[in-house]
Amino acid sequence: MEELVKKWNEILTYLKTEYEISDVAFNSWLKPLELFQIEDNKLYITYNGDQSSMTLSYLTRKFTTPLKITIEELINQQYDEILVISQEDANQLKKEKDVEHIKIEETLPFEEKRMGNSSINPRFTFDNFVVGRNNRFAQTAALAVAESPGEFYNPLYIYGGPGLGKTHLMQAIGNYIENQNPKANILYVTSEEFTNEVIENMRTNNNATAMQRFRDKYRTVDVLMVDDIQFIIGKEATQEEFFHTFNALHAMGKQIVISSDKPPKDMETLDDRFKSRFDMGLMADIGYPDYETRMAILNKKIEEKKFNLDESIRKYIAENIQSNIREIEGALNKLIAFSRLEKIDITMEIAERELQNFISPNISREITPQLIIEVVAEHFNITVDQMASKNRSSSVVRPRQIAMYLCNTMTSSSLQAIGLLLGGRDHSTIIHGANKIEDEIDKEEATRNLVETIKKKINPN
Ligand code: ADP
Ligand code: MG
After folding, report:
1. Residue 297 beta carbon below 6 angstroms from any ligand 1 atom
2. Is 41 strand, coil or helix?
């Protein structure tokens, strides 16, 4: 802790430069962070500012991973977790310590010692991965790779939106291979970790031994998994190094698994060399889970955490949190924490109150490109077929462009997917249409109002 205290300012400053954090963000988020305590190799931090759970969870989500990496880099200290807690919780913890309270450790079901490999987290396995329509293909592909690494699908490229299970599947592959073959050398890294190592390497002036160490680490593995590759693109040196690593491993028949938030073809600045490399392998996407899958996942998590939760509240969560499993888990964790702290069972009233940040009220329908196109067509009194047609008359072109803009801003659908729904148009057409409307919105009040109106029709609350 001493060293951490001594270097705290340096750590924050480094973080600011390394992650290109603006002055205003630095002053409002990072400067007010204060070291509180280290316990069980977890670092607790308090925030000298707004204490709402939204702010604290934002801080945790946004900054704790970069912090972790920075602390590792600067003082070579690795924490299992970094948590931003409220000042109230901090005071409470202090009090509990003072009276030498016996701490009731939350029993974690997966506390067995990590075997050999520290980059693989035993918590994420195929056993506890719920398969639904949205992820069946990805799960099958991942399992095939786990069973025969380097043989059939190389690389395996998993893509999908945030919180839909990409990391879980990669970790499951790692755990599976490790189980089958404890000697296998498996390396899982986030692309930030990879980037940081490349940067570190360059800082040591491409020092030959450092470079050798880096290569030894990455080019001697049997399985390399790089998570969230989208963060590597645009970073020249990192991209270059990854490219060589990739080629070296691939040539030796070593398995490579990559995840990203989009398919390679949608990563506009991704080097073409990569696109063709990735095309050699298998692409597997994970889509949004349907209600049944969300419910099954929620039930699984509840079971894992040995918690009691009423069926109606489970339904409430699964119905309302639709596009991100991590959020479903976050909501559940919040209820568990509340229930343990207050020592009461969760009622619907409590759930509704506590989950306000996760659940926006009255979401009655999911906003999809289909829905948007239907609403726009209806608004302009034309048909969906006309929207998707080749018709170039202005009475159709403009609604079509508005739909492009709305699909692009209100959903996370890829440009390809939007283009497909709008009559097989390519992504540049969609961008062009969307940009045109965006410019108009900036310049013309009428367009602004029109778009606002349609938006309200799409999402009436
Ligand atoms: P991503 O890497 O795609 O952002 P994660 O793999 O981190 O998402 O998943 C977020 C959380 O949701 C994790 O805790 C993971 O265990 C859980 N999760 C996602 N999909 C499933 C699933 N099909 N079954 C069980 N848990 C899942
Ligand atoms: Mg992930």
Report:
1. yes
2. coil
206 CA from centroid of ligand 2 (Å): 30
More confident position, 148 or 235: 148
C-beta neighbour count of 122 within 10 angstroms: 17
Residue 138 Cβ inside 6 Å of ligand 1? The answer reads: no
- Choose one of 121, 140, 303, 326 to mutate for the ligand 1 pocket test, by most ligand atoms within 8 angstroms of C-beta: 326
Q: Is 289 exposed, middle or buried (0-12, 13-18, 19+ CB in 10 A)?
A: buried
Q: Is the CB of 162 under 6 A from ligand 1?
A: yes
Distance 79 CA to ligand 1 centre (A): 22
pTM assigned to the model: 0.58
The answer to whether the beta carbons of residues 30 and 16 sit under 8 Å apart is yes
166 lines ligand 1 (CB under 6 A): yes
Per residue in 31-61, is it b (16+ CB within 10 Å) or e — as a string? Answer: eebeebeeeeeebbbbbeeeeeeebbeebbe
Contact 162, 287 (CB under 8 A): no
Report the candidate in 440, 443, 131 with the shortest Cα–Cα distance to residue 287: 131
Give DSSP secondary structure letters for 360-429: -TT--S---HHHHHHHHHHHHT--HHHHTS---SHHHHHHHHHHHHHHHHHS---HHHHHHHTTS--HHH
- pLDDT tens per residue across span 38-95: 888 888 899 887 777 767 777 787 888 888 888 988 888 888 888 888 888 888 777 6
Alpha carbon of 166 to ligand 2 centroid (Å): 5
Which residues, listed in sequence order, are joined to residue 160 by a DSSP beta bridge?
A: 286
Please give the radius of gyration of the chain, using alpha carbons only, rounded to the nearest integer: 24
Tens of pLDDT, residues 5-27: 888 988 988 888 888 887 767 87
Q: What is the pLDDT of residues 152-188, one digit of tens each?
A: 899 999 999 989 999 999 999 999 999 999 999 999 9
- Kindly report the protein residue whose alpha carbon is nearest to atom 23 of ligand 1: 130
Q: Quick check: 145 and 173 in contact, CB under 8 A?
A: yes
What is the residue with the minimal CA distance to atom 7 of ligand 1?
167
Please report which ligand is nearest the Cα atom of 128: 1
